[in-house]
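Structure first, sequence second, as always.
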C-alpha cells in the first residue's frame, strides 16, 4: 500500500455525505487486479442523503437492495440504471443512518490501456481519455465495477481490490486540481426529484467532469 498512497480510513466516511463528498475530490480511486492497477483521481461526486432525500435510494426506507446505504460507513453500494450501466457509491454515516456519495467522474492516471479495453474504446489523442471515466457509467465500466462483484465491498480494507488513497499515484501527471481554489458545488444532474439541491461537487475546469463544462 505504501507505493499507492495512504488508504482513506473508515472514520473519513463516518460523516454527513455533504462533508464527505467535497473532501473526496482529489483523492484516488483504485482497482487492483493482481500486480496491475487501474486508478483515477476523483473530480466529480454527488451527495445523497437519508430517507428525507427523495432522490436517494434510501427515500423509501431500508430494503435488501439498498441495505448498504444504511450499513456502516466506507462500504460500496452499486446499482444498475437505465438497463445498461452500473453506478458506484460509498456509504456514509454510522450504521442505521442512510447516506452515500456517488462517484461521477475520474481523471485516469494509471491502467489507461486496461480501462480502454474495458470500455471498448480506442485512445488516439489526449482528448480521447474523457471517453474512459467522464460520467458514472463510463467510470464504473472502466474499473470493471458490477453489483455482483463489488456491492458491499469494504473500501477501507487493505485486502480489498477496490479502495481509495489519499495521495497521488505517480503513473501519469495529473492536471491542475487546486482544491482550495477550484472546488464548486452545483445542483445534482440526471435526476428529477430534489434536483435543485447543490449537492454535486466538482473540480471546476477539469476536463473529465461530466456534463456542461465549468470554469
Amino acid at each position: 500500500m505504501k507505493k499507492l498512497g495512504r488508504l482513506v480510513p473508515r472514520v473519513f466516511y463516518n460523516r454527513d455525505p455533504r462533508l464527505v463528498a467535497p473532501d473526496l475530490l482529489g483523492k484516488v480511486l483504485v482497482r487492483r487486479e493482481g500486480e496491475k492497477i487501474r486508478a483515477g483521481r476523483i473530480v466529480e461526486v454527488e451527495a445523497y442523503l437519508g430517507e428525507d432525500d427523495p432522490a436517494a435510494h434510501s427515500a423509501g426506507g431500508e430494503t435488501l437492495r439498498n441495505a448498504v446505504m444504511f450499513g456502516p460507513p466506507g462500504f460500496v453500494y452499486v446499482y444498475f440504471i437505465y438497463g445498461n450501466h452500473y453506478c458506484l457509491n460509498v456509504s456514509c454515516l454510522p450504521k442505521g443512518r442512510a447516506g452515500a456519495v456517488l462517484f461521477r467522474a475520474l481523471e485516469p492516471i494509471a491502467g489507461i490501456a486496461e480501462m480502454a479495453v474495458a470500455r471498448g474504446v480506442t485512445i488516439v489523442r489526449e482528448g480521447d481519455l474523457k471517453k474512459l471515466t467522464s460520467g458514472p457509467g463510463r467510470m464504473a465500466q472502466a474499473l470493471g465495477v458490477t453489483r455482483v462483484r463489488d456491492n458491499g465491498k469494504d473500501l477501507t480494507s487493505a485486502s480489498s481490490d477496490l479502495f481509495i488513497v489519499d495521495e497521488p499515484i505517480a503513473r501519469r501527471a495529473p492536471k491542475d486540481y487546486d482544491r482550495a481554489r477550484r472546488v464548486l458545488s452545483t445542483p445534482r444532474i440526471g435526476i428529477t426529484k430534489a434536483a435543485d439541491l447543490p449537492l454535486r461537487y466538482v473540480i471546476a475546469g477539469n476536463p473529465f467532469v461530466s456534463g456542461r463544462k465549468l470554469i
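Margin note: Residues 99 and 134 are 23 Å apart (CA to CA).
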